[in-house]
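Thread: quick sanity check before group meeting

JM: Hey all, I'm pulling together slides for Thursday and realized we never actually wrote out the predicted structure for the chain we discussed last week. Dropping the sequence here so it's in one place. If anyone has concerns about the input, flag it before I start.
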Amino acid sequence: MTTQTYDAVLIGGGIMSATLGTLLTQLQPDWKILVLERLSDVAQESSNAWNNAGTGHAALCELNYMPEAADGSVDPAKAIAINEQFQQSRQLWSSLVERGVLDEPSSFINTAPHMTFVRGEKDVAYLKKRYEALKDQPLFEGIEYSEDSRVIHQWAPLLMKQRRAGEPFAATRVPAGTDVDFGALTRQMLDHLVAQGVDVRTNTEVRRLRKQDDGTWKISYRRTLGRTPGAIRSRFVFVGAGGWAIKLLQSSGIPEIAGYGVFPIGGQFLKTTNPAVVAQHKAKVYSQASVGAPPMSVPHLDTRVVDGETSLLFGPFATFSPKFLKTGRITDIVAQVRPGNIGPMLKVAVTNVDLVKYLVGELTKTHRKKVDSLRVFMPTAKDEDWELIQAGQRAQVMKRDPEKGGVLQFGTEVVTSEDGTIAGLLGASPGASTAASIMLGLLKTCFPDRMAAWEPTLRGLIPSYGTTLNPDAAAADASMTRTADVLSIAR
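JM (edit): ok, ran it. Output follows.
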């Protein structure tokens, strides 16, 4: 018998639910909120530190946010938009540190310069154009460019040691980049929610969502220990369950999910904790993706700080599993098929042959071949210094397209019912880094009648809410300086 009714139920114990729950408790401290997580602890899937690269995605180094057009031009608009979104996350985290919600900032965020490194005349020319387009943008203040091996060696010695002479190369660097432990951030947010009276239940797998005649949602679940069933009701539901969001949104019956599917792509990283190697590299260095590779597979050599220990990661190397989560089920990929999405999914399969070839090539790589890929970045890399670790699953969005029939979309997308009583997040990067912006958009869509009353509180948490920083150099500088000071990171 269903007896409990909540104001909001958040499904999934990751960074998205943690961010939304934190905002809601600040906006509506009287609301009764429940978080449901199917695993034994929170932040164990995509938000876990070892299941992602921890890059504070601000478009400082990621080339896929600023591709070269057919005419050779580069447009900074998307890169600027991504950076704006990350600034909102920085502002929220800063406010939460000041309010005692989050712990010492170094427990979840640390300075790690963001670099881009390319080889070959074509890519060098492109990177120079990208730099020229960004260097005068206020949010990219401090970006540096060099083709000088001595300068790049100062920035990141491992890139240049024993590199072949005569090869064209170039790099950009932003000293104020960050490395973020989203697992620690998620746990701290949820711990505070529990202290505020929010009910966080682990080992609870949501099985079905059904809209009731009174407008509430019935959420049927099963305890993973003992397999005891149960149900609760809620006036609002957020599905932040990673790859499983598609399954739960489909079970809800909302028409807005028709035409959507997801394609799972796994990943692996090479990791080293060798102090002699780690000490020589403090940066996140991104490059160009291979032909046919998805944006999430852009190769990068990264500083990571997790639980106070510094290590280096290189990758990712794509893997394939039919599971939508690292702890998902092998039937996931076929269980999502519906009459409304099979057409778009087949169209995606036909038009993404390069992606299939890329995945096959990645799956056949041996450990030595993977270290060979690393040696393109770091010529002195030794096989024995690096171990292979399994990263998380990314469920990339497939959706109906009126012109192409179906498209594979990289990024994140919020799917919301017409009445705003249920919403879910599909997709992956740069999701975690832009969680604040994504959740602000969700609030505006799902609670339009409350936004005017909420605005003062939102501005207190995120001062740039409702505005953009980049058009105002003084505002951008003030925001980045303040958040850097509060978070103890480089400006």
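AS: nice. The longest strand covers residues 261-272. The mean pLDDT is 93.
JM: adding both to the slides.
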